[in-house]
Amino acid sequence: MNILRSWREQKILLKRIFPILSDEDFEFKDGNKESMFKKLEEKLGKSKPELELIFAELQLL
């Protein structure tokens, strides 16, 4: 996947698509992004592949 958008842009787009998300949902400690992704999966009711697809689609918006 080619990253075309900054992380900041991706967070803004995700919060527009999923209004239930907040800035706190995107926090992670010590570079542990996996814990953040697990929180997003649970909150959105999406599997890891579904979440990866959502992030890939953000690159096309």
Walk me through the structure:
With 61 residues, this protein is mostly helical. It has one domain (7-58). It has helices at 7-17, 33-44, 48-58.
Ordered list of secondary-structure elements with their pairings:
Elements: H1 7-17, H2 33-44, H3 48-58
Shape: globular
Class per helix and strand makeup: mainly alpha
Largest sheet: none
Count of DSSP-assigned helices: 3
Order of helices and strands: HHH
Q: Indicate the proportion of strand residues.
A: under 5%
First-last Cα distance: 14 Å
Mean pLDDT figure: 88
Provide the low-confidence segments as ranges: none
Per DSSP E runs of 2 or more residues, the count of β-strands stands at 0
Helix content: 55-70%
**How large, in whole angstroms, is the Cα Rg?**
11 Å
Quick structural gist:
By secondary structure, the chain is mostly helical. Helices cover 56% and strands 0% of the residues.
Properties at a glance:
mainly alpha; 61 residues
